[in-house]
Amino acid sequence: MKKILTIVGLSLLMFGSAIAAQEKVDETLAVSPAARVSIDNMRGKVELIVNDKDEIRVVGKLDEKAEDFVFEQRGTGVHINVKVPEQRGFNLSSDDSEGSDLKIYLPSSMDISVNGVSMDVSANDFDGGLEIRLVSGDIEVSSIKNRVLLKTVSGDIDAEELEGEVRFETVSGDIMDINNGSESATYQSVSGDITSQSDSVTELTVQSVSGDIDVKAGVLRKGKVTTVSGDAILTAGLHSTARIESSSVSGDLTFKWMGDIHSSFNIKSNAGGEITNRLTDDKANEAEWGPSSRLEFSVGDASADVSATTVSGEITLDKN
């Protein structure tokens, strides 16, 4: 029996030594600069940094609960994975350790995918496409080109100088997007606020439940703004063939149009909401029965179309 216990003890000691050896990492792998890399890390912090060499280098500290570190090429792709017990049902939320702290150096042209549960991610100056999906944690990126998807449930998203097709999704976090150089942008939030500033976006989708929306876009060809109880402000130009749709339940909708306007307007309030028109002298007509009201008018040659509806909020049409 004593011999058995000794063997077990030695086995546990060897296992503990293996984990200790994984606490710090500094590994390099030669790659094609056009390859796709998938990064999986449950918790902690990951910083993506441009590498001017055709290689990926991973430097830093692994999660205290890490059981394995995978860094390998599979076919044309590269996989980086910090494996922890959570992947077999271990509950990380009951643990107060910090998790991984990694700096990953990659060629700027790589197509990058990042997945995590409770961690922060930052990235700058990549042009091969970037997808980040988190449960809780903040995302901070700048100067990213090509396809961009940024998604976190309870964290904030801060972005600057993005280009390509961009999409932001969060539940309770705020979205801040500054100097967006893309033509198409999509923003989705439940309770977080959405703020965006761009002179380039021509196709826009913004959706929120209770968070506020403040978006400045370029000359819009297509736009959709939806909110339930949050207030929304859209500042943009109107292309001659633009199609803009917007709706709210109790939130206010404010439109500040830039430049020349050639559009028809169809504005409706269903249950006591107000309609304010500062573009022309046209006034809303109240229904003979019930609290609803409608405003229909045209400006210029009316080649574009703008429609907005609210239940009890206020809709304001103005010039910027």
Written description of the protein model:
The protein has 320 residues and is mainly beta. It has a domain at 23-146. 6% of the residues lie in helices and 57% in strands. The protein contains one helix and 26 strands. It has one helix at residues 2-21, and strands spanning 24-30, 36-41, 43-50, 55-61, 68-74, 77-83, 100-106, 111-124, 130-136, 139-142, 147-152, 157-160, 165-170, 175-180, 184-189, 194-198, 203-208, 213-227, 232-248, 253-258, 263-269, 274-277, 285-286, 293-299, 304-310, 314-319. An eleven-stranded parallel β-barrel has the order 8-9-11-13-15-17-18-16-14-12-10. A hairpin with a 2-residue loop joins strand 5 (68-74) and strand 6. The longest helix has 20 residues, at 2-21. The radius of gyration is 26 Å and the shape is elongated. The chain starts with a helix and ends with a strand. Mean pLDDT is 90; it is low at 1-22.
